[in-house]
Amino acid sequence: MRKAALLAAVVLAACFTTTTSNAAAKKADPAVAAQQNTAKLMQAAVDPYGTTSKAAAAGKKTAKKGGKKKKKA
Protein backbone atom coordinates (compact mmCIF):
# COMPACT_ATOMS: atom_id res chain seq x y z
CA MET A 1 0.00 0.00 0.00
CA ARG A 2 2.87 2.35 0.74
CA LYS A 3 4.39 1.68 -2.66
CA ALA A 4 1.11 2.50 -4.40
CA ALA A 5 0.75 5.74 -2.44
CA LEU A 6 4.34 6.68 -3.19
CA LEU A 7 3.84 5.92 -6.89
CA ALA A 8 0.67 8.02 -6.98
CA ALA A 9 2.45 10.91 -5.26
CA VAL A 10 5.36 10.74 -7.70
CA VAL A 11 3.02 10.63 -10.72
CA LEU A 12 1.01 13.60 -9.47
CA ALA A 13 4.15 15.56 -8.70
CA ALA A 14 5.47 14.85 -12.19
CA CYS A 15 2.22 16.05 -13.76
CA PHE A 16 2.24 19.33 -11.86
CA THR A 17 5.92 20.03 -12.42
CA THR A 18 5.59 19.70 -16.20
CA THR A 19 2.65 22.12 -16.17
CA THR A 20 4.55 24.73 -14.19
CA SER A 21 7.75 24.29 -16.19
CA ASN A 22 5.83 24.76 -19.45
CA ALA A 23 4.40 28.02 -18.13
CA ALA A 24 7.85 29.10 -17.00
CA ALA A 25 9.37 28.14 -20.35
CA LYS A 26 7.10 30.58 -22.19
CA LYS A 27 8.59 33.49 -20.27
CA ALA A 28 11.92 34.74 -21.65
CA ASP A 29 14.88 34.13 -19.39
CA PRO A 30 16.72 37.39 -18.64
CA ALA A 31 20.04 35.53 -18.42
CA VAL A 32 19.68 34.33 -22.02
CA ALA A 33 18.90 37.85 -23.23
CA ALA A 34 21.92 39.21 -21.35
CA GLN A 35 24.14 36.54 -22.89
CA GLN A 36 22.90 37.40 -26.39
CA ASN A 37 23.55 41.11 -25.75
CA THR A 38 27.06 40.29 -24.54
CA ALA A 39 27.72 38.23 -27.65
CA LYS A 40 26.60 41.10 -29.88
CA LEU A 41 28.77 43.53 -27.93
CA MET A 42 31.83 41.31 -28.30
CA GLN A 43 31.23 40.90 -32.04
CA ALA A 44 30.95 44.66 -32.45
CA ALA A 45 34.12 45.19 -30.40
CA VAL A 46 36.14 42.77 -32.53
CA ASP A 47 34.81 43.95 -35.91
CA PRO A 48 33.34 47.46 -35.51
CA TYR A 49 32.70 48.00 -39.23
CA GLY A 50 31.49 44.47 -39.93
CA THR A 51 27.81 45.22 -40.21
CA THR A 52 28.10 48.50 -42.12
CA SER A 53 30.99 47.87 -44.47
CA LYS A 54 30.52 46.60 -47.99
CA ALA A 55 32.96 44.82 -50.21
CA ALA A 56 34.67 47.02 -52.78
CA ALA A 57 33.26 46.77 -56.25
CA ALA A 58 35.44 44.94 -58.72
CA GLY A 59 37.16 47.22 -61.22
CA LYS A 60 36.01 47.04 -64.81
CA LYS A 61 38.55 45.80 -67.30
CA THR A 62 38.67 47.79 -70.49
CA ALA A 63 40.38 46.89 -73.71
CA LYS A 64 43.41 48.98 -74.57
CA LYS A 65 42.95 51.28 -77.47
CA GLY A 66 45.45 51.10 -80.26
CA GLY A 67 47.94 48.41 -80.96
CA LYS A 68 51.65 48.14 -80.45
CA LYS A 69 53.61 51.15 -81.53
CA LYS A 70 56.34 50.59 -84.05
CA LYS A 71 59.77 51.90 -83.32
CA LYS A 72 61.21 54.39 -85.78
CA ALA A 73 64.45 53.33 -87.28
What does this structure look like?
It is built from two helices and no strands. The chain is rod-shaped. 58% of the residues lie in helices and 0% in strands. The longest helix is centred in the first third of the chain and has 25 residues. By secondary structure, the chain is mostly helical.
Short description:
By secondary structure, this protein is an all-alpha fold.
Spatial gap, N to C terminus: 121 Å
Helix content: 55-70%
Shape: rod-shaped
Q: How is the main sheet built? A: none
Structural descriptors:
73 residues, mainly alpha, 58% helix, rod-shaped
Write the layout of secondary structure elements.
Layout: H1 2-26, H2 30-46
